[in-house]
Amino acid sequence: MTEALLVSNIVSWVVILALVLAVLALARQVGILFERVAPMGALMMDTGPKTGDVAPIFSLPTLTGGQVEIGGAAPRSTLLFFLSPTCPVCKKLLPIIKRARKAEGDWLRVVLASDGEEPEHRAFIQRAGLGDFPYLLSQELGMTYHIAKLPYAVLIDEQGRIGAKGLINSREQLESLFTAKELAVGSVQQFIEQKA
């Protein structure tokens, strides 16, 4: 009886040691994988005005009242956020856009842009609580920047140049535009390619 108990105890310790070694090996592999996987920033399309180019200048009326100047020198950078009332990802990002505007408001102005029928957008502005955002309805603006997929954002710096741009699907991708501006590169991917 004691012999069976001793054998089972030894087997248990061997299994525990094997499990500890397996956990350590997995932890090492996760660390290696983490080092190899680069942070994913906003996906930059190669169409439209390039980063570093002077942003096209627009003076457009907003659906929320007033006129907005896009492009040219300005006291703050402008985040031009292209969205649609029918885009579920756009709706998911609106609280993030609101928080970003509040947190980065000392250097950043957020302008929402779309195209389509005005009544639909006015209802969307009301439903989503976007009345305090400049909201542009301009097909020409989207065509100038070659916006093919939504949600898409263009960051225009204080000198009126396109600092960063890309397809935005998460908070991290939005923040990658701000990081790209700080690093003076067109995108996080471009920065990683330069370092490689």
Automatic annotation (TrEMBL):
Keywords: Membrane, Transmembrane, Transmembrane helix. One of its GO terms (molecular function) is oxidoreductase activity. SUPFAM superfamilies: Thioredoxin-like. One of its GO terms (cellular component) is membrane. It is found in: Membrane. Residues 49-183 form the Thioredoxin domain. GO terms for biological process: methylamine metabolic process. It is a single-pass membrane protein. InterPro entries: MeN_DH_accessory, Redoxin, Thioredoxin-like_sf, Thioredoxin_domain, Thioredoxin_ResA/DsbE_sf. Pathway: One-carbon metabolism; methylamine degradation. The keyword Membrane applies. The chain crosses the membrane at residues 6-27. It comes from the Bacteria. Pfam families: Redoxin (PF08534). Gene3D superfamilies: Glutaredoxin (3.40.30.10). Signal peptide: none annotated. May be specifically involved in the processing, transport, and/or maturation of the MADH beta-subunit. This is Methylamine utilization protein MauD. The lineage of its organism: Bacteria, Pseudomonadati, Pseudomonadota, Betaproteobacteria, Rhodocyclales.
